[in-house]
């Protein structure tokens, strides 16, 4: 089978992945996943779809992430991997959808409004 190319998004992060059958090597922006995501929690988030369907070690994944923070990048990669797994085998769709890995999280940062300090925070009121 050839390479599967998928995209995942979260907040302002975009993850593009290339998944091929292999021995489980995961690289993020041409670095090992342990180097790019030094915290175990983010590594677990990226590997969650593979562990859920029981195919850890069966696919090589190359991830290119851009924008946002480290947590958003990890969750965008999780979504892209989930989409690629569905294309490899349609039987994986049920468990991944049940866990919510195929649903784009629509929450974004609210824009700053005029006359306010932040999106909703008002300037401090001084009576005197």
TrEMBL record:
InterPro entries (alphabetical): Ribosomal_Su5_D2-typ_SF, Ribosomal_uS9, Ribosomal_uS9_bac/plastid, Ribosomal_uS9_CS, Ribsml_uS5_D2-typ_fold_subgr
Recorded GO CC terms: cytosolic small ribosomal subunit
Alphabetical keyword list: Ribonucleoprotein, Ribosomal protein
Alphabetized GO MF terms: RNA binding; structural constituent of ribosome
Region annotation Disordered: where it falls in the sequence: 105-128
Protein's UniProt keywords contain Protein biosynthesis: no
Amino acid composition bias (Basic residues), ranges on this chain: 113-128
GO BP annotations, alphabetical order: translation
Highest taxon of the lineage: Bacteria
Family label: Belongs to the universal ribosomal protein uS9 family.
Protein's recorded name: Small ribosomal subunit protein uS9
Organism from which the protein derives: Algoriphagus boseongensis
Lineage summary: Bacteria, Pseudomonadati, Bacteroidota, Cytophagia, Cytophagales
